[in-house]
Structures are given as structure tokens and as C-alpha cells.
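Appendix B. Extra example for self-study. Work through it before the problem class; the solution is given directly after the inputs so you can check yourself.
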Amino acid sequence: MKGEKNVVEWGVFVASLVLIGTTLAILLLDAFRGESKPTDIRVQLGGPIQRAEGWAVPVTIRNEGDETGENVHVEVALQRDKRDVEVAQVTIDFLPRKSEREAWALFRENPDSGKVVARAIGFERP
Amino acid sequence: MTHNRPIVESLQEYGRGLAGGLLFSLPLLYTMEVWFTGFIAAPWRLLVYLAATFALLLGYNNYAGIRHDSDWTDVVVDSFEELGLGLVTATGLLMLLGRLDASQSWREIIGKIVVEAGIVAVGFSVGTAQLGTGENEQEGRGSETAASVSSQAVIALCGAVLFAVNIAPTEEVKVIALEVGPTRLMLIMALSAALGLMILYFSSFARSEKFSKMESKSQAFTGGVITYGIALMSSAAMLWFFGRFDGCSVELAVAQIVVLGLPATLGASAGRLLLQS
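Solution. C-alpha cells for the complete assembly:
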């Protein structure tokens, strides 16, 4: 005697079809857009916050490219008269395409005493 | 006469599937290299992976699935269900483990879920079929097709993937492949082939009489070669998916295939016997 599917099983099947269809559609759209912009790192800084042993500057590192960057090194420098007086470094293990990561750059001196600039200084292609 | 299966029975089946899915996929859900593959892999590679997973589910459900009275429509429906449940389970667990959050792009999120969902889905299929008491279910389809080479090849492929996929994404495969010389690689090949032959034809493993019966030495040799071939092929496919061939020489690629071929052979032989009732 063969058991037919009940309402729960049909529900699971229809929900699965919708899920798989949506996932496939997203991947297909992404695949056929054909964009292959190399890793493109942008760095944005927030306002400094005083901590017990200095100041912390929030750093948002974003990859606008279509390839993941590995070991992304970012340098954040406190400058006075266009000269670096203190430099902090941030390293991100992986920065996926079109994604961002948040980090903090730590300074002993008050960042408001000069100008804080940030730049990506290197990354690997995984 | 047909009747609707009781809902409790369906829920029990999903429970077994969930247990199987977690049993086989938890190591991967806790592995960084697998999360990384989710956002490093290009979308077309994820599509190939999804298609391969679905093909594996179709194969397993057809030859060793839970219902022997099922036709191809049931096999396809079950496979869709398992893949869908795999996607849901992988999403839930990745969220629980803090691997998905709002700061990530949808590409990163989808990639991670798809990579994890594939193996959860295969685990779901195996768990549903193999973890039951057998009281409520008919005998598996494997019983009808025990002698079929194609059925055993498909289940060997499932076994190889389920067992070796926990090792394939790790850096250690490349390290071993880089450090062992050609002599040791040949010894690894010999050990892999010998283990496959021993498990399938010599050591009287449970169910080996049924699924790998040896009628002649040449038949055992052929069976061993096919099993090892499947192990090497599945190793190559897994390493390719996890990006282990990217930027490496042909020699290193082959060495990695041989290194991963050892666990894959265990999966294709001992795993194959465990995956079918």
C-alpha cells in the first residue's frame, strides 16, 4: 500500500522549491551580470573616541570590487603639516566582494590635533 | 489503494534527516575555510556545486533512498525537499554560530549558505534513509539494485564525498601534497587501493556480501579500480570547488588529489557499505 504525501510534506516541498528557485535566480543573475572588477578597497574613518590609553578611530573598510581581497592591510596616519606623526595599522583576513568590515585604529595622541588619513597599502588575491 | 502518510511519520522522517544532516555537516559548519569558500567562489562555481549536489541527491535517493516503491517523481520531490531543508538548516546554524550578520553583503551570505547547505542536504538524505528503525518504512531501494554497478558507483560517490569533504577544504591537504615526495605519493596510492580492496572484498564487513560480492579475482580487481577511480574523481571535484587548484602546478594538483584520495577511498568503500541498508 503506497502512502501519498500529506499536507506537511507538500508544504515542505513547495517551500523548498521557492527557496531553491530564489537561490538559483540570485546566483544566475550574479553570474550573468558578468562583472569582474578587481578588488577595490575604500576606507572610511569615523570620529575619534577617547579610551583609557589613548584614542580609537573607527575604520570602515569596503571592497567595491568583484573579487575577494585577503590579508588586507590598511594604514591610518595622524598627520601634522602633511607629515605622519603617528601611524596605526589594521589587517583584515578576508574582505569579500561588495562587503565591508569594521575595525579600530588606536592612537596615543589625540587625532583631533591633526589630520587623520587612511589608505589601503596591500592585499593578496586568495 | 492509496492513503496519506500520517503527519507524525513525516515529522519523524524530517527529524532523522535533521540528525543525519547535522551529523555529516557539523564539522564543515565549524570550519573557516568553508565559510571563506562561500564568498571567494565565483557564482558560476556555486551553481555547478548546487547542480552536483542535486545530482548526488537524485542518485542516492534513487538507489538507496527510503522508499523502494517510489518512482522518479518521488525521487525528484524528495531531492528538492532535502536541498530546501539543507538551505534552511544551514541558514539557521550559520546565524546561531554568528557567521551571518547585517554588515555582510547578500553575495557573501548566499555563498556561505549554499556551500554549507549542499552537504547538509546529502546528510539529510542519508539520515532519513539510514537512521530509522525500519518499522515504518519499506526496505530501501538498494535491495533491488544490489548487483548493479551503476548503483554502487553512485553510492560510492556519495560515501567518498561525505567522508572526504571534511578534509578537502583544509590547508593541510596542500601542505602534505607539497611535502611528500613522489615515492610517498605512490605509497599513499597503493595504501588507498589496498584499503578499498580489503574493505570491500576481504574483511567481511557488514553488508559487503550483498553489495560487493566477489565472484572472481578479476571482478574484485575491477571493483577495486572503479572504487579508487571514483575516490580520485570526487577528490578532484571537491578540491576544484574549494579553490585548491587555483594557481597551482599540475604536479601539485595531482599530488593533492592523491592525498585526498585516501579518505575518499575509505568513504567510497566502508562508507558505501554504511550508507545503504
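Self-check: Residues 136-140 of chain B have pLDDT under 50 and may be disordered. If your reasoning did not lead you there, revisit section 3.
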